[in-house]
Amino acid sequence: MKKSITLISLLLTLWWTLGSAQMKSDPTGTWGGAMATDAGPGGLEITLKRNASQWNASMKLRLDGRETAPAVRDLKISGADISFTADLDRNLAKFAGKFAGDTLKGTVEAFQGNRKIGGGTFALTFGGQMPPLQQQQPGGGQTADPDFNAKVDLPAYKKNGPRVLFDEAHNNFHTSTGRYKPFADLISSDGYQITPNKEKFSKATLKGHRILVISNAIGAARMNDAAAGNAAFSEAESDAVRDWVRAGGSLLLIADHAPIGSANQSLGKRFEVDMSEMYTVDQQNHDTESGNPGFIVYTRASGRLVDHPITRGRNQSEQVNKVITFTGQSLKGPASSTAFLKLADTAFDAMPGQNTNPASAAGRAQGIAMKFGKGRVIVMGEAGMLSAQVVGPQRMPFGMNRPGIDNRQLALNIMHWLSGVLK
């Protein structure tokens, strides 16, 4: 009898233990904990909900000195396995993990276009918390290069230079004091007078300015927010900019890869410019040093750096012979426009992930110039080329500070054409 009771007790204990483990391994709920990545330590929190057989998730991420809440995409849960993706600024992060009782451990990989640029691991517990937010580590992320030489020895304007309105009112990823500070410093040294814009566009806002610069305006406060691809400008604002250009203003509109293209599409269409709203890559004409197919090379010798006042400059010293773009989208302008950064027939547009839905970018461009009424317009499909940044733990030069290219001169020539120095 005693042996029977002991056996029953053991069976009950085993049943209870297995039942408890099964309950803890049910993914529904919040999981939180630490991450260890190439960009430094961080934290991850993911909340899982189930409606019948449909899983939904939300997440928070602490990395590079800030907390974000990127949208969860491509969520899959099968038994003990889980995978999902999230857009993190210019990059795509792929998460894969395995549940074991009240723990969830796995890996994360970061991609820019189709190229892996980093990775790490995460260890979460059910009901756990992320580590406290840490200050951004030196060398991590994407920041303006403090050592960039922005001095122009022979400025185009020694005094009373054109007034430039630099947009900072539309959740711009690039601002005159942030990632685009090197560009702002460069054109200031060339004699242009910059005013940061903090208001919605209107006739009154634009009045008195010669050039309007818009770089990577988005529809939400964060690049990885689900609403980032929403229209960055109201219809009335887009109309105001169009009318101002038609009357003699000059516009530099810079709109990068997804989700930025869709956020700027409505303004682009005012000038008959179509934006692919995707990522543009070229396996045949990219930068071999980085190996990134999104870093597309344009040269005068190839014919894809098209002859135009912008690429010729005022003299031989200002001629642009080689430009690199740093992962953007493709553009198609009207027949009256000039594609001075012309994509090769081997270029294509795609979205990161398993279902890339690639489309040929043949006949499209990443730099377009046109006259519009009494004014002028330049639309760029990539922003990094006119910046000077350092990226990642290795502080890779990214933009005008990259050795062996003419992006710095291209930036000056663009402004010279918009202001009329170049005809």
Describe the structure.
The chain is α+β, with helices and mostly antiparallel strands. It has helices at residues 2-24, 181-189, 203-206, 235-246, 260-269, 309-312, 407-419; strands spanning 29-37, 40-51, 54-63, 66-68, 73-78, 81-88, 91-100, 103-112, 115-126, 142-144, 163-167, 193-197, 211-215, 250-254, 274-275, 279-281, 297-299, 322-324, 331-332, 338-342, 348-350, 359-360, 365-372, 375-380, 388-391, 396-399. Strand 21 (348-350) and strand 22 form a beta hairpin. It starts with a helix and ends with a helix.
Essential attributes:
423 residues; alpha+beta; Lipocalin; Rossmann fold; 2 domains; nine-stranded antiparallel beta sheet; seven-stranded mixed beta sheet; 7 helices; elongated
How are the elements arranged and paired?
Elements: H1 2-24, E1 29-37, E2 40-51, E3 54-63, E4 66-68, E5 73-78, E6 81-88, E7 91-100, E8 103-112, E9 115-126, E10 142-144, E11 163-167, H2 181-189, E12 193-197, H3 203-206, E13 211-215, H4 235-246, E14 250-254, H5 260-269, E15 274-275, E16 279-281, E17 297-299, H6 309-312, E18 322-324, E19 331-332, E20 338-342, E21 348-350, E22 359-360, E23 365-372, E24 375-380, E25 388-391, E26 396-399, H7 407-419
Parallel strand pairs: 11-12, 11-13, 13-14, 14-24
Antiparallel strand pairs: 1-2, 1-9, 2-3, 3-4, 5-6, 6-7, 7-8, 8-9, 10-25, 15-19, 16-21, 17-18, 20-23, 21-22, 23-24, 25-26
